[in-house]
Amino acid sequence: MKIIVIGSVAAGTSVAAKARRNTEEAEIVVYDQGKDISYSVCGIPYQIGGEVENLSDLTPRNAEWFKKRYNVSVFTEHKVTKIDAAAKQIEVTDLVSGEKKANDYDVLVFATGASPFTPPPFNQKYYDNAFQVRTIQDARDIGNFTVAQPKKALIIGAGFIGLEMTEQLVNKGLDVTIVQLENQIMPPMDADMAFRVEEQLREKGVHLILSDTVKTIEGETSVERVITTNDVTIEPDIVILSAGVRPNTELAKKIGVEIGTSGAIAVNKKMQTNLSNVYAVGDVAESFSVITGKPIYRPLGSTANKMGRIAGDVMTGGNLEHRGVLGTGIFRIFDLHVGQTGLTEKEAKIAGYEVEVLYSIKPDHAEYLGGKELTIKSLVDKHTGRILGAQAIGQNGVDKRIDVIATAITFKAKAEDLFHLDLAYAPPFATTKDPVLYTGMALDNALKRNPLLTPADLVSRQLNGEVLQIIDTRSKKDFEKEHIEGAFHIPLAELRERSKELDESLVTVTYCNKGVTGNAAQNVLLNYGFKNVYNLSGGNKNYQSYLKMIDSKK
């Protein structure tokens, strides 16, 4: 059997390595049009910023290493230009010599990855100070350019790469401006959580321009000045284009490989395409949601490695299957760690779920040992109790909580299951009621007895003229500093004796600063016979953040 793999980064090399582990009989050949193989795309921003000292640290293996270790022939700077699926033959061009040659195969694997999208008008001309961040060669080019010590940077796009590059360039002393087409950074997140990151960016001096795009570029060989659609003028020394990626499907389309609804190659759980003995893995292939079962496209190195291993196993007689993804991701932006898994609130509602939403604002570990605030937005299906997703922002402990919740979602845990997890506890690492345990407890309570109201729901009800009885349970000082419009001030300690001042027939909303005391007040009123009592999720702190977000988008 002869296996040919097109592409040699995470997925392609994983295919070759797993196939070789399973059999010594197969001939395995890998072609890549780039110079480097098996490198860390995700590490590039940190090498550019100086956190990774040497670029070679991102390219620990080369073609010679693969040949010696796995007896796999890897040809770099070789581009597959044609495929004859009927004859099972490819045409390869040596990009150095220009020589073309044919090669037969029994099994063909598309690991062609994805290419960065070049938005207009940058796609109309080459500029020597505009860069993508996708390959090791990109890192070399940016590194060589920054030797001249540019002072102002323009970043197009505020996804993972755009924000990571923002952090690194600010740390290097550059004045950074971000232009983002959508009205929020990190479009895969809910806007109210992304807003917390936007505040961090502004605090660090980043100029954030949302709901805008570059309209015109001035300069012949370099980008000297750009003017946005909203007439904002920016004069950058260096431009980073990070407007997302598109799967490299052109070669596959030519031989009739089916493209999925996500725009990537459609595959089954064994990474097989619609053509016999043709596989697709990594950033060129679509995945599917663990929750909904529907196709999704989430190009990440971790998923690419997994897909490659599965394909390499299946083609050599194994029975591995892809089990889908949750879209779990995490990034660091200055002082904050930001993670998410599963569905966002907007995705869940689009998918038809009726959800209960909790904002948990808790220290990541004991405050007397320096615990810092950790905000988790989580959601649960009201009908089944199943956890659907979570987003978390904090200075520490985000990865731990997101990974625990991702594991729980994968095994179809319900809200109550989170509370019963036996998680590691000691004051330097967690609180006695870990944020994950609290999330499970509060969501379970919300489903059974203690319904929650999000700031968005509260504002919507108020704008619609609904009569609400809103109770602020905080101290007089906090109430006088700021409170929700129309709220009554009744501290929790006085609520029992003053409950008769309230109308049991009205929809009642209790709140405190972050949610805990509001929940206690909710219980008091429910115990006294009030029928319709909500606790404001995340309390006044979350509510004020929501109002700031609304104001910032006007």
Automatic annotation (TrEMBL):
Please give the cofactor(s) recorded in the UniProt entry for this protein.
FAD
> Which Pfam families does the record associate with it?
Pyr_redox_2, Pyr_redox_dim, Rhodanese
Query: Which keywords accompany this UniProt record?
Result: FAD, Flavoprotein, Oxidation, Oxidoreductase, Redox-active center
Q: Does the keyword Oxidoreductase belong to this entry? A: yes
Tell me which SUPFAM superfamilies the record gives.
FAD/NAD(P)-binding domain, FAD/NAD-linked reductases, dimerisation (C-terminal) domain, Rhodanese/Cell cycle control phosphatase
Which PROSITE patterns does this entry report, sorted A to Z?
RHODANESE_3
Record flagged with keyword Cell inner membrane:
no
What is the name of the protein in this document? Answer: Dehydrogenase
Query: What is the originating organism of this protein?
Result: Carnobacterium inhibens
Source organism, top-level taxon: Bacteria
Q: Of which family is this protein a member? A: Belongs to the class-III pyridine nucleotide-disulfide oxidoreductase family.
